[in-house]
Write a structure and sequence with these properties.
This protein is of the alpha/beta class. The protein contains 14 helices and 15 strands. The chain has 2 domains: 271 residues, 3-Layer(aba) Sandwich (Rossmann fold), CATH 3.40.50.2000; 171 residues, 3-Layer(aba) Sandwich (Rossmann fold), CATH 3.40.50.
Length: 465
């Protein structure tokens, strides 16, 4: 039986930047390629991709709010041009538009006043069949709209971090207070930071919103799903669906040719790390990699370099403290060249709910050495596709790197295994997994012909090994 074409509305803060943005954008393109009607609603439209629409907060009867939201709308490009400062300017304009948010922010509450959220379903020519939400915490989505939206249209929510499980932080690290209601927070500075400890109130607010909503929850990894299952989230069904990459782009290439195109010396042994704002990224452990690079160079000489891609710099290539830096690239084909030019991909992090760069590196046929933390063991098979090292242990990581660089057969064997393992993360599998779930959800929804009784269950859809 031929399945109907769907109308799907995705949401995200941005159309492109990091991993969460890449997931939503790849789903959009995958749905469009299959003939479905698909759109991506964003808080900041920084992409030329088709069918990307801006969440419009100016549709309000309050003249004050409309004035400031109209200025906010005209500053869309500030985020791209000025980075963190641009983001702060836009956040300030949003607070001016909704002054109650100023008082809440000062008191330690999580500000979430974005009236355009209630008009999401009216952005399209016709109401969507499915609403698929991503990254609700980054300045474009009003959390209190979830009960309303989810009762209008079946709503899928993909979690890329743990913010919705806690009283403020994107990742709780070793703290387990999110299990019991937060309060007495040990670190208010973890992004998104708050000024006062109202984490218990924020946690209760999220619990109340979820209890009133009707949601289907997806998680990027089994590690994150275990946290979802232990949390206060209420949902109809929950599944692990791994993000995917385009294996037509991320594939094996000739290393010599890749280096020639990137103006990289052919004689160097290159350790590669890719991360948005690598040096200041609170989730990545750049300092560990810097120490590792120094230890490897002391053992093997200065013909080994650490190349970091994704740190904003002027020019094409820069060197600082024995580390080479390349600026961020928005072109997947350009990024794929960096993977192909490298000998080993190294990944050090404090937390990781998935790790798209690890999968991209494996699909390029190079070994991966990464910290054994969070969801990373779901991606790197220790001793087969690369190596896992203890968090914070630069010596062990350096020794593993030297072991591989001194053994061409081992490097080739690990790279081949990584290439084969990466096939399970084909973006087409991700797109099809979501589409199949959409059809199941819609079939259930039609049969119920009314609000479905809430229950909690977990359905595994993809293997972790």
């Amino acid at each position: 039986m031929r399945k109907e074409k769907l109308r799907i509305l995705l949401t995200n803060t941005l159309a492109r930047e990091g991993g969460a943005e890449q997931v939503a954008s790849s789903l959009l393109l995958g749905f469009l390629e299959r003939g479905h009607g698909a759109w991506l609603a964003v808080g900041v439209n920084n992409s030329l991709a088709p069918n990307v629409v801006l969440v419009d907060n100016t549709r309000t009867s309050n003249l004050w709010s409309r004035f400031w939201w109209s200025i906010h709308k005209r500053t869309t490009q500030i985020h791209s041009k000025f980075g963190r400062w641009g983001e702060r300017i836009r956040r300030g304009l949003a607070l001016m538009a909704e002054p109650l948010g100023i008082l809440e922010t000062l008191r330690g509450y999580e500000n979430s006043h974005y009236p355009g959220t209630y008009q999401l379903l009216n952005l399209l020519p016709q109401r969507p069949d499915i609403l698929h939400l991503h990254s609700l915490q980054r300045g474009y989505f009003e959390l209190e709209s979830l009960p309303y939206l989810s009762k209008q249209v079946p709503t899928v929510l993909t979690l890329h971090d743990a913010w919705l499980l806690s009283g403020h932080c994107t990742h709780p690290f070793g703290c387990d207070r999110w299990l019991t209601g937060c309060g007495r927070c040990p670190d208010l500075s973890i992004p998104p930071a708050i000024l006062r400890d109202e984490t218990a109130r924020n946690w209760q607010r999220k619990k109340r919103v979820f209890a009133q909503s009707r949601l289907w929850i997806a998680a990027d990894s089994h590690w994150l799903m275990e946290k979802v299952r232990a949390s206060m989230l209420t949902y109809v069904d929950a599944r692990v669906i791994y993000p995917g990459i385009d294996l037509r782009v991320f594939s094996t290439r000739n290393r010599k040719e890749a280096r020639h195109k990137l103006n990289l010396p052919p004689h160097l042994r290159i350790l590669l790390f890719v991360a948005t704002k690598a040096r200041s990224n609170p989730w990545k452990d750049y300092q560990l990699l810097k120490r590792v690079a120094g230890q490897v160079r002391s053992l093997m000489g200065d013909h080994v370099i650490l190349l970091v891609v994704g740190d904003p710099l002027s020019g094409e290539l820069a060197e600082e403290d024995d580390v080479w830096f390349a600026p961020p690239t928005i072109q997947p084909e350009q990024l794929a060249l960096y993977y192909s030019a490298a000998d080993i991909y190294v990944h050090a992090t404090h937390v990781e709910t998935f790790g798209l760069t690890i999968v991209e590196a494996m699909a390029s046929g190079i070994p991966v050495i990464a910290t054994r933390i969070a969801a990373i063991p779901e991606l790197v098979v220790d001793g087969r596709t690369g190596y896992l090292t203890p968090p914070g242990d630069s010596t062990d990581m350096a020794n593993r790197i030297v072991e591989i660089l001194n053994n061409n057969d081992l490097q080739q064997s690990l790279g081949n295994a990584a290439l084969e393992f990466a096939k399970r993360f084909d973006v087409n599998r991700t797109v099809e997994a979501y589409l199949q779930w959409y059809y199941e959800i819609l079939a259930e929804d039609r049969e119920s012909q009314g609000p479905m009784q809430m229950y909690r269950s977990t359905h595994w859809t993809q293997e972790s090994s």
